[in-house]
Amino acid sequence: MERYETKAVVKLLVKYPLGTGYPLVMKTVADMYKSVSQQGEVVSFTCDATGVGTVPASMLQEVLPDVRIEAYIFTNQRKRELVGKVKIMHSFGRLKFAVRRGEEVYNRTLHELITEMKQVQAKVIREDSNNPEIEIFKTGQHDDLFTALALAVKDIRFEEGWNELVGFIEDKTWAKSPLTSNPPPEVLFF
Q: What is the distance between the alpha carbons of residues 140 and 124, in angstroms, rounded to a whole number?
């Protein structure tokens, strides 16, 4: 992910087959870090520690001792916040994806990411104007690429205030409730 003016651009996607060992993943990440850090600043790495714990983050910290590595545990609230952030960034044109002509693997992975973005949904499970409960769920088999994207945008901040972004797009995704009319959950993307 690279920040370019008022946009965050996804420039690199790597997806490993399920069951790929950590040593190969760590070597690839270290090689990418060395390559990217020569071109610009790498702020940090965030590892999903929800199911596997902090072992992958600790292993990456050993490989890259001078880099800030964060082991991030998803809670329901954190997942809602990051899904919302990705949705807002994408809706306002702040999240872009580089397309690489002739790079079949990258473009196929990008297509998989966009499919995962379409499959992440939300529904209101408790209506309360002060504290609504919103459940985030997926309709597909995997959301690993989406999770990686959410972690990549986690620390991105834009200069504009929230008030400058509110009001351009009427979004009623969060206002609809299956408790009152039982509609199917709204798709968050596209």
A: 19
Using the structure block, give the residue that is written with the tokens 């379409």: 118
CATH of 2-187 among 3.30.450, 3.30.160, 3.40.50, 3.30.420: 3.30.420
* pLDDT tens-digit readout, 21-46: 989 999 988 888 888 888 777 767 88
Tokens 């370019």 map to which residue?
4
Residue 57 · residue 67 · CB < 8 Å: no
- Which among 35, 75, 72 is positioned nearest to 152, based on CA atoms? 72
The structural domains of the chain, with segments of one domain joined by +, span 2-187
Residue type (1 letter), 189: F
- 129 pLDDT band, cuts 50/70/90, is low
Between the CA of residue 120 and those of 56, 133, 150, 180, what are the distances in Å? 25, 17, 12, 22
Residue 16 clears pLDDT 80, i.e. is over it: yes
